[in-house]
Amino acid sequence: MSDLFSRRLALLSNPANLPLLTECLHGIEREGLRVTPEGALAQTPHPAALGAALTHPQITTDYSEALLEFITGAHTDPAQTLDELALIHSFASSRLQQEMLWSASMPCALPDEQDIPIARYGSSNIGRLKYVYRQGLALRYGKTMQCIAGIHYNFSLPERLWPLLQLAEGDVDTPRDYQSRRYIALIRNFRRYSWLLMYLFGASPALDAGFLRGRPHQLQQLDDKTLYLPWATSLRMSDLGYQSNAQAGLTPCYNDLTSYTDSLRQAVSTPYAPYVEIGTQRDGEWLQLNSNILQIENEYYSSIRPKRVTHSGERPIQALVARGVQYVEVRCLDIDPFLPLGIDLTSARFLDAFLLYCALQDSPQLSARECPDCTENFLAVVNQGRKPGLQLQRLGEPVELTRWGLELLDGIERSAELLDRAQGGQAHVAALQAQREKLLDVGLTPSARVLAALRENAESFTEFALRMSRQHQAGFAAAQLSTAQQASFDASVQASLHEQQMMEAQPQEDFASFVAAYQASIQNPSA
Asked: What EC number(s) does this enzyme carry (predicted)?
């Protein structure tokens, strides 16, 4: 535990500064497949009763037409965030008719690739661009992989906190650059320690046997319909997922914001020979937006991203370059199939303490040796995190996962105590204690509980996830919205449908010119 961390804790512990920690913001994006009552992938269009996926602020789709995404606003209390997420679930479930939301990150038994529907967003140029981007993802990575679902946790520290820390540390950078630098430092620490999140919250140790489509693999057979790894925590985050030779050399080590944005801008602008050979169009139909390493910056798959709320028509890199980092998006969380929302308040409270620790702890730049160690530690835990005596690499030396995890929790407890002093009660320390118990008893981890359920009930992965899906659906159906809540959702549905219609009624420039202008915008991100 560094002296710098202790000094920052002391500064924020001052009664005059402590209330700042009640102003952190939290948002959640939860993905989930629509499935039939029998657990098959829904082949129906995105329900009009949920609004327009292009324009609805809370209910959209991710890759597939069947892959819903629920988006909350940003709230100072994660309990409010989860309350909003629960309302979205209840409303959506009431509009899905016979369909329901799949309970797990790894997908249900999927149809043939050609029968997995890509999400559609209408006839406007931006709607077409979103569709063609997904066509490119299918071409580059296959549709099956795109049906994996997860939870994204958005977190920010209050804007008023950064000048306080900057003044105390005598930093002479611009306030915007200091804030961005500190968020990038948070991300570096996240990369160092995020293996712990995979141990604590990984919930995908098994998958449907058909998911791999006959590809070679190292998984074991649990039953005739289920593949697994005995010590895995999150096959979703393993290299079973996004296989990409094109992205193999693209691993920003987050030593500063400029190098991060430059690396992404270069990837979005650099042709990749196999994609060039395919081309962007065939017989007048668009196949991908471009033939570069990345079509757009969001194609880079990472466990955490620096983010800034974008203006209309603005690209993520443009927002970061123009106004700096505003929050982080944690992207490595599995959906917990035992939880109706896929995440609960205990998990959120611990994530807050963990991210505050990453923000306040000293964060030297990642060396050429440490950067690959972070990646290897992460992959070791997702593949065999519950293996007794598993060794990770810490500053070039082997260390047992359990020992390192408990030491990390001792440090994170300091930030949990600080949050509890600011907000009252002991919720954060209690959430941390729940994670300590998982390190002391591996059977309490979600991944262990999933495998235990499969064995105890003699269920395949698909049967287990379907049972949990039905259970959660019944709970959502029983949670009646108030008249005012129902009216609010109905109004947002109609507003989104109207907004898309208005967009499509506007004159549209030639789509090829629109794509070219979109591509050119990355060359001048400050424009």
From this structure: 6.3.2.2
